[in-house]
């Protein structure tokens, strides 16, 4: 009778160690955390951010460098938000934390018409508040809980709806240059994080603002990738690998690769816009 619970614990521990290894590899590959870093761990109350904090805490005791972790939650004043859940959890596991209180919920509901997606504005407001807090309180890194699917989905969103080849980098500097953002879960699959969340019994807090919108473009992409993975397991990993194995000379961006200089020169592109025999400045009157 005791064999099954024991086996389950063994599998859960094995799963945690595998995710910890992937997280550590991502941190090492991209130089996400260095000695003396003060890391602000953004804790939303979702499964991914709980898993990120859990894995970072475990790595903190094993890492070859010393770094500080502080959990930070942005209370956006959504109606019915269980504001004691995160403080109770963080106090219980002994993690220092801070809750930023900003009523971005009312702003989003006032600005976005009923029925329109709220994610873009909500994320900008959330990001702005978190970035400002990190700068004001001396954090050297901001850790976000985005996983492999988030990165691949963002790639397809930009590809299909934005006409650009870009995704969500594991490490980046904010546009204003004031913050370094890291994504330690970049090598982790969402399904594995969901299993971890169930095994560790994180006190998940659902998002009622954007998580309940069924027609989001991201949801469409997620369904597409899910179907691909069902037909060909491992396809998401293959797509992610492609994002780490870019060949600029095989694309078409003249800012990224010097196509004009391949044969040692040639006339500037502007020359080819002029009819033969006409001066470069165009016809004169």
Describe the protein:
The chain has 285 residues and is of the alpha/beta class. The protein has a single domain, classed as HUPs (Rossmann fold). Helix content is 45%, strand content 9%. The protein is built from nine helices and six strands. It has helices at 3-30, 47-60, 85-93, 104-111, 119-136, 148-162, 190-200, 217-231, 235-243; strands at 38-42, 68-75, 97-101, 141-143, 171-173, 180-182. The protein has a six-stranded mixed β-sheet, sandwiched between helices. Helix 2 links the parallel strand 1 (38-42) and strand 2 (68-75). The longest helix has 28 residues, at 3-30. The termini are far apart.
The CATH class: Alpha Beta
How much helical structure, as a percent, in the residues?
A: 40-55%
Structural class: alpha/beta
Total strand count, please?
6
Summarize this structure as a short list of keywords or feature phrases.
9% strand; 285 residues; Rossmann fold
Task: Explain the layout of strands and helices.
Layout: H1 3-30, E1 38-42, H2 47-60, E2 68-75, H3 85-93, E3 97-101, H4 104-111, H5 119-136, E4 141-143, H6 148-162, E5 171-173, E6 180-182, H7 190-200, H8 217-231, H9 235-243
Parallel strand pairs: 1-2, 1-4, 2-3, 4-6
Antiparallel strand pairs: 5-6
Short structural summary:
This protein is of the alpha/beta class. It has 9 helices and 6 strands. The radius of gyration is 23 Å and the shape is globular.
């Amino acid at each position: 009778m005791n064999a099954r619970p024991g086996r389950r614990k063994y599998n859960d521990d094995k799963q945690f160690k595998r995710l910890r290894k992937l997280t550590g590899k991502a941190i090492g590959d991209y130089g996400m955390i260095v000695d003396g870093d003060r890391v602000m761990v953004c804790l939303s109350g979702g499964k991914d951010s709980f898993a990120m904090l859990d894995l970072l805490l475990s790595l903190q005791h094993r890492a070859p460098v010393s770094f500080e972790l502080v959990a930070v939650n942005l209370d956006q004043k959504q109606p019915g938000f269980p504001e004691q859940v995160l403080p109770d959890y963080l106090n219980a596991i002994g993690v220092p934390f801070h809750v930023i209180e900003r009523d971005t919920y009312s702003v989003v509901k006032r600005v976005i018409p009923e029925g329109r997606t709220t994610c873009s504005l909500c994320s900008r407001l959330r990001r702005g508040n978190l970035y400002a807090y990190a700068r004001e309180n001396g954090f050297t890194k901001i850790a976000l809980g985005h996983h492999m699917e988030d990165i691949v989905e963002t790639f397809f969103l930009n590809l299909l709806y934005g006409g650009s080849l870009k995704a969500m980098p594991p490490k980046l500097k904010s546009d204003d240059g004031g913050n370094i953002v890291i994504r330690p879960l970049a090598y982790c699959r969402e399904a594995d994080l969901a299993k971890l969340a169930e095994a560790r019994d994180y006190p998940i807090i659902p998002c009622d603002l954007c998580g309940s919108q069924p027609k989001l473009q991201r949801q469409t992409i997620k369904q597409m990738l899910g179907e691909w993975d069902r037909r060909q397991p491992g396809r998401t990993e293959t797509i992610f690998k492609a994002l780490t194995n870019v060949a600029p000379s095989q694309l078409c961006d003249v800012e990224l690769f010097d196509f004009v200089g391949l044969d040692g020169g040639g006339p500037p592109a502007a020359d080819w816009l002029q009819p033969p025999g006409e001066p470069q400045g165009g016809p004169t009157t």
